[in-house]
Amino acid sequence: MVKKRVLTAALIVAGMASVAQAQILTNLLANGGFEDDGGTPGALGVTIPSGWGISGSGTGWVAHDTGYFVDAIAVKLWTSDSSIYQDVAVAEGLTYQADAQAIDQLNDPLVNRDVLIKVEWFDSGMGSLGVDEVGRVIGGTDASGAWKNLTAQLVSPAGAETARIIYQLVDTGADPRGAAYADEFSFGRVGSGKVGLRLFSIRNE
Ligand SMILES: [Ca+2]
User: Fold this and answer.
1) I need a surface site. Which of 1, 84, 102, 168 has the fewest CB within 10 A?
2) Distance 182 CA to ligand 1 centre (A)
3) Within 10 Å of residue 23's Cβ, how many Cβ atoms?
4) Which band of pLDDT confidence, cut at 50, 70 and 90, is reported for residue 193?
């Protein structure tokens, strides 16, 4: 009889069924809906929503445009060289869920340009550990002028201590154009405990 080594791997993800339907336990983001400053519109680079940071040119608008906000305010972008982000403390190996809503402007639709919501993970020295995409409004593909829910459950990588939730536009082709709004950001733990407990056994046959 020829012996062969068989590697048996079992992946146990605690509470997987419940995680798939879970709600965020606590929204770690401050001012995820942009109303905390009183709901006053203004230029993004001048009026920076509390809790958030601006990267790049700062071109954008803290907007109260009919049909393009939830509650009172959303953030409008129309260039790919500006983004808005927020950092939150995380721990490694945990499942987090990120949510946002976004919409492009019906009379200035996205063409060769997407809304991109993503999460970048950082270690204790703010060294990047990688980026996970949460979702996109895809210019020219998704219905224009319609809110889209963007959501993803992500497992924080080893060494992660900070998650940066980022909203930006990305150009995807020639002559990119169009404007979009995003609102109702949330980010937080779902489920409980660490996931991905891997049990390996080696047996001979
Ligand atoms: Ca809002």
Assistant:
1) 1
2) 8
3) 9
4) low
The backbone region for 34, taken as left when phi is positive above 0, alpha when psi lies in -120 to 50, beta otherwise, is left
Predicted confidence (pLDDT) per residue in 75-124, tens digit: 999 999 999 999 999 999 999 999 999 999 999 999 999 999 999 999 99
Q: For the whole model, what pTM was predicted?
A: 0.83
Q: Which residue has the tokens 């993803």?
A: 152
Per the structure, the complete domain to which residue 12 belongs is given by 1-17+193-205
Same domain, 110 and 94: yes
Q: How far is the CA of 185 from the centre of ligand 1 (A)?
A: 9
The rounded percent of the chain whose pLDDT value lies above 90 is 79
Query: Ligand 1 centre and the CA of 61: distance in Å?
Result: 13
Provide the pairing of β-strand 162-171 with 113-122: antiparallel
Are 29 and 10 members of one domain? no
Please report which helix (H) or strand (E) contains residue 20, including its range: helix 16-20
70 C-alpha to center of ligand 1: Å? 4
Query: Separation of 195 CA from ligand 1 center, angstroms?
Result: 33
Q: What is the CATH number of the domain that holds 153?
A: 2.60.120.260
> Do residues 116 and 39 both lie within one domain?
yes
Number of domains forming the structure of the chain: 2
Q: pLDDT, tens digit, for every residue of 162-190?
A: 999 999 999 999 999 999 999 999 999 99
